[in-house]
Write a structure and sequence with these properties.
Blueprint lengths: L2 H15 L30 E4 L5 E4 L9 E2 L8 E5 L11 E5 L2 E4 L3 E2 L5 H37 L1 E2 L2 E2 L4 H33 L8 H27 L9 H9 L9 H12 L4
Antiparallel strand pairs: 1-2, 2-6, 3-7, 4-5, 8-9
């Protein structure tokens, strides 16, 4: 994004996204998935009409992806409705079903160039998938650290449960998976940073490495969190211990911003030169 494009983006988007003190508004979100179409941005059906050329308004009510545009939609706009949903985890992140019914949006709320929304979304997903991979790596490490500490404290049969070979194998696998995921996440982040700085010609597909990082880290986090609950036993199933919180939160990573199945499809397309 060129400097002038960033300034336009900043001046248009930041006031809607950030509070005066720099914190993110609780009722702000990025929406790029429709209920009937799934993840592919190219299948989005929400219509955008430009009404009365000089009126300065756009209406949300493009057929193919070449007509998609990215807009900032005020949550108090007439015709906008958000229905909150009760979730399994991620209690700090709100999730809602959004509908638009003839929503009028000022023309200066267009982010970037008209018709470039599809490509803006793809670029955003590369970063977003690595971000998700990193957060799930953190949750997996958090669950592992607590399970390891508990294995040294909890005694069974006159000795810490961590002294048993079966428990050490379990912990060793958890540690191994966290380390492998960390290398994938860091590799993806460094590669994307290098590409954006123009440090060197990147031979790898950014889409592929982002998908690999997300796929491995999120599925690994689910496995590690489940093992952590198992190590805690009955206590791990109780709200008094954080491992059950990790267990509920990590599952979302295999679903949002492209399910694990979507990541496998993406990697497969790269392998067959379709992306």
């Amino acid at each position: 994004m060129a400097d002038e494009e960033f300034e336009t983006f900043r001046d248009t988007v930041y006031p809607f996204v950030l509070e005066n003190d720099g914190r993110v508004h609780r009722d702000r979100a990025f929406q790029h998935v429709e209920e009937e179409t799934g993840l592919p941005p190219s299948r989005i059906n929400t219509e955008l009409d430009r009404i009365v050329k000089d009126s300065g308004y756009l209406v949300l009510d493009s057929d193919d992806h070449t007509g998609l545009s990215m807009l900032v939609v005020p949550t108090d706009a007439e015709g906008y409705e958000a229905e909150p949903r009760d979730k399994l985890g991620l209690d700090a992140a709100e999730h809602a079903h959004i509908t638009y019914d003839g929503v009028r949006v000022p023309e200066d709320h267009l982010v970037g160039e008209e018709g470039q929304g599809f490509y803006q979304t793809l670029a955003w997903l590369e970063h977003g998938r690595v971000d998700i991979a990193a957060s799930h790596l953190g949750m997996a490490e958090g669950a592992f650290d607590r399970a390891l500490a508990y294995s040294k404290e909890r005694k069974q049969g006159g000795q810490p449960i961590g002294d048993y070979q079966g428990m050490r194998w379990k912990l060793a696998d958890m540690r191994k998976n966290c380390k492998v995921a960390k290398s994938q996440v860091y590799h993806a982040a460094r590669t994307i940073d290098a590409e954006e700085r123009g440090d060197a010609e990147i031979e790898e597909s950014l889409i592929e490495i982002a998908s690999i990082a997300k796929l491995f880290a999120t599925e690994m986090a689910c496995d590690v969190a489940e093992e952590a609950v198992q190590i805690f036993g009955g206590k791990g199933f109780a709200r008094e211990n954080e491992v059950e919180h990790f267990y509920r939160d990590v599952k979302a990573g295999t679903i949002y911003e492209g399910t694990s199945e979507v990541q496998r499809n993406t990697i497969g397309k790269v392998l067959h030169d379709e992306l």
